[in-house]
Amino acid sequence: MHAPAAHSYNNVEVVLVNPCELTASITAVANALACKLTEDELNLLGVTLTQLGDTLLTIATHRSVCGKDA
Predict the structure, then answer these.
(1) Residue 8 DSSP code
(2) What sections of the chain are H helices per DSSP?
(3) 39-51 CB burial, b ≥16 within 10 A, e <16
(4) Rounded to the nearest 5°, which phi and psi values hold at 6?
(5) Among 20, 37, 52, 69, who pairs with 41 as Cys (CB 3.0-4.6 Å)?
(6) Angle (nearest 5°) at CA 46 between 15 and 9
(7) What are the distances in angstroms from CA 4 to CA 7, 17, 19, 48, 70?
(8) How confident is the model over 4-22, as pLDDT tens digits?
(9) From CA 18, how far away is CA 45, in angstroms rounded?
(10) Does position 1 have pLDDT exceeding 60, yes or no?
């Protein structure tokens, strides 16, 4: 097995993994959090991360349509 490829974007090193590894990792983090957080804490974290994801997608779409500096 080989190590995941590391790439640099805007001076930030990013390790790229295949989609199966990525989703398995995300699931593992979700399960670990679910074991430690209350129902209310899980709900708050979930809606907060959803908002973050939605906002990042809005920014990325705006940049691709209008240009990065718009």
Answers:
(1) E
(2) 19-36, 39-66
(3) eeeeeeeeeeeee
(4) -105, 135
(5) 37
(6) 20
(7) 10, 6, 12, 29, 34
(8) 677 777 777 878 889 999 9
(9) 26
(10) no
